[in-house]
Every structure is written in C-alpha cells, then in structure tokens.
Write a structure and sequence with these properties.
The protein has 113 residues and is mostly helical. The protein has 4 helices and no strands. Helix 3 runs antiparallel to helix 4.
Length: 113
C-alpha cells in the first residue's frame, strides 16, 4: 500500500505539517484518526487497512478532480481570445483557430484553409 511522506507523522499523532494542499490536509486528518482508533483498540488491523484504502481512493479522486478543473480553466483562458475574435468576426478562419486550440490539432477542412 502506498505511503505518503506525512503518514508517519499522522501515525504518531504529530501536529499536521505546514504546506500541505487541501487534499493532503484532509488525508492527513483522516489517517491520523484511523491510526488513533487502531492504537486505541477501537478497530482491528483489517478494518484500519480498509479505511486507509478508502481514504487514499478519495484522496486520488480529489487530486484528479482538482487537476481536471485546473486544466479546464487553463483551456478556457486560452480559448477566450479566439472565441472573442469569432464573436466579432464569425468566419471560417476564426472558427478554425478556436477549434484548433480546443482540440489541440491542426484542422484540415479540405478547402485549402
């Protein structure tokens, strides 16, 4: 099972390290709670492992979503200029510029443009 750089600190109930991302903070707190419950005898090892795995899956999902949002925002920022030009002058050429940026490939419309 994957271990995070801050996991040992969570295991030892140390204060949360500075500089963690939001997703890492949530994971740190979740791991700290799982380890505390395990050390207190409230849950057994298989349950702790199952809960740790669930936390890690949620963390991976949150990181993926954040990366997706960041890429989407970056793309929309790049599209703003070409779309504005298309709104001002709706031609095949301005549409083609926006489409090429959106899809990341040169568009061959078969008309020599």
């Amino acid at each position: 099972m994957k271990e995070f750089p801050f996991e040992r600190a969570a295991m030892q109930n140390d204060p949360m390290p500075e500089g963690l991302t939001g997703a890492e903070q949530v994971l740190y707190q979740g791991l700290a709670l799982v380890y505390a419950r395990y050390h207190a005898g409230d849950i057994d090892r298989p349950t702790a492992q199952k809960e740790k795995l669930a936390l890690m899956k949620t963390y991976d999902s949150i990181v993926f979503d954040c990366q997706l949002w960041a890429r989407t925002a970056k793309l929309w920022g790049k599209l703003e200029g070409p779309l504005q030009r298309f709104r001002q002058k709706p031609t095949v050429e301005t549409a083609k510029q926006a489409m090429e940026l959106l899809y990341g490939v040169k568009m061959d419309w078969g008309d020599g443009r």
